[in-house]
Amino acid sequence: MEVDMWTRIAQNLLPAPRCHLCQAPTTTTDGLCGACARDLPRLGAACTHCGLPLARAEAGTLCGSCLADPPPFDQALMPFRYAPPIDRLIGALKFRHDLAAGTLLGQLLASAVAGRSVDSLFPIPLHPARLRERGFNQAAELCRVVARAHDIPWDSRSLQRLRATPAQHISSRRERLRNLRGAFAWQGNTPPARVALIDDVVTTGATARAAAATLKRAGAEWVEIWAVARTPPTHTGNF
Ligand SMILES: [Zn+2]
Ligand SMILES: [Zn+2]
Hints:
With 239 residues, the chain is α/β, with parallel strands linked by helices. The chain has 2 domains: 1-39, no CATH class; 41-230, Rossmann fold (3-Layer(aba) Sandwich), CATH 3.40.50. Helix content is 37%, strand content 14%. The chain has 9 helices and 7 strands. It has helices spanning 2-13, 34-38, 64-68, 86-96, 99-112, 128-134, 138-150, 173-180, 206-218, and strands spanning 75-77, 80-81, 120-123, 159-161, 184-186, 194-202, 222-230. The strands form 2 sheets. Strands 1, 2, 3, 6 and 7 form a 5-stranded parallel sheet that branches. Helix 9 (206-218) links the parallel strand 6 and strand 7 (222-230). Helix 8 (173-180) packs across helix 9. The longest helix has 14 residues, at 99-112. The radius of gyration is 19 Å and the shape is globular. It binds zinc ion (2 copies). One zinc ion (ZN) binds next to helix 2.
């Protein structure tokens, strides 16, 4: 009797779950109501290798730059365009350390990669100076949620960043790639055969290329890129 009474009181005290975006009451477990989940900016037709949005894509379609110069990673999964409200959520995680936004984005990424089979996850590391300044690595926050959702081990130590991301004004792809050569180092045991690199947003793909190449050199056979969002292409040949 007494237990029932306390259970009832506790239930009345607990706030009803609300949609993270519109605050409407929701019964879903991922923190979004049905309407907001439907309105998310899904990437849609994209290169099956690098995720570059394409006007029309059929199964197995590759973009021009992947045909001409295949990236060192084997597959990229990026469920969303970097557009509202995904860009706002990523900003909230990155610049305000909004953990609720991080959990939501991590869960969205986790459902996008359901069914993939990899042995270990590696968040794209921040340069140590940037990590000190920010206090946390947003990619590691996402990685933690995805790893827990699919019960995959993750490692935020073996892949290290030796140099910061090149400035955005370096616009030529060749220059960016040259700048990122040697940006990452591997300091651990041989990685498992199949791995995924986790990031919040892929912009030029130069970082993903450099990190994937480092994992391949360390001994990984299959490297996937799992990122929440892809920026819309502003010019061709991003990868
Ligand atoms: Zn909503
Ligand atoms: Zn491509």
